[in-house]
Write a structure and sequence with these properties.
Oligomer: single chain
Structural class: alpha+beta
Largest sheet: 5 strands, mixed
Distance between the termini: 58 Å
Helix content: 25-40%
Order of helices and strands: EEEEEHEHEHHEEEHEH
Mean pLDDT: 83
Low-confidence stretches: 1-11
């Protein structure tokens, strides 16, 4: 006597979902965080993926699934009889556009693991509860950072610097920083902050990588330090609570 955990064989079930990549890219002078739409098997094999601007991929999901079923990037595989997604909105789109495939709205731990791996590849790990206090960072040190960031936001350098392609040379002898360059973002009225690179060459490599991301690739980004200001309403609740509990300074509701 044997038992089966899956209603269908694993090869007949795919997992899909949309995730936000952790790093900003710059396309046509506009910085944003791309989203990635992924189709994969329960065995972890990725059959297809697409990268786009925030909000673009949801309505394209049905066409993307049909293209991936017709020509999987992983090579010939059995066509899925069922697709499991975690987002109800994505499930609704797929049910309307791919009625021949059973769509189940349920957790997708396989995709969560893949996204965590992508975040690690981009130099950031979002696994576990979110916190500003990474190992070795004290509340006092983070409070000092928040104070400096609030002062920067009030000065609004993005209202003075023409665009994010206008690089500012940075030397900080106390931290052995020489020949670095600063790119100010926010000139178009959104996504305020800055990107700091070790050299002009790293900045141009970043711009080239951003273009690849927009076209669906996931290249390795050069080392950089990024600070961006976000609306408090867009932050995870645990981050807002952390800011409030420590009394860290913010310049306004849109300057976290």
């Amino acid at each position: 006597m044997s038992s089966h955990r899956h209603k269908h064989p694993p090869s007949a079930e795919w997992v899909g979902g949309i995730a936000t990549l952790p790093s900003y890219v710059i396309d046509k002078g506009e910085p944003f965080r791309p989203e990635v739409l992924v189709w994969m098997g329960v065995d972890g094999m990725v059959h297809g993926s697409e990268v786009g601007r925030p909000g673009e991929l949801l309505q394209q999901a049905g066409d993307s699934l049909r293209r991936t079923v017709a020509r999987p990037m992983s090579g010939p595989v059995p066509q899925p009889r069922r697709v499991r997604v975690a987002l109800p909105s994505l499930a609704a789109v797929l049910r309307a556009s791919a009625p021949a495939i059973e769509v189940v709205c349920a957790p997708t731990p396989e995709l969560d693991e893949l996204v965590a791996h992508m975040h690690e590849s981009f130099g950031r790990d979002d696994a576990g509860p979110q916190t500003y206090l990474s190992p070795g960072v004290t509340p006092a040190a983070m409070g000092s950072f928040f104070e400096a960031a609030a002062a920067l936001h009030r000065r609004a350098p993005w209202s003075v610097v023409p665009d994010d392609q206008t690089l500012i040379g940075v030397d900080i002898p106390a931290f052995e920083v020489r020949g670095a360059v600063l790119s100010i973002i926010g000139g178009i009225g959104e996504s305020f902050g800055f990107l700091l690179f070790d050299s002009p060459a790293d900045f141009h490599e970043f711009v080239e990588a951003a273009a690849l991301i927009v076209h669906g690739d996931i290249p390795e980004l050069p080392p950089h330090f990024a600070v961006n200001f976000e609306r408090g309403a867009d932050l995870a609740p645990e981050l807002r609570k952390e800011v409030a509990s420590h009394g860290w300074e913010v310049a306004g509701a849109e300057a976290y």
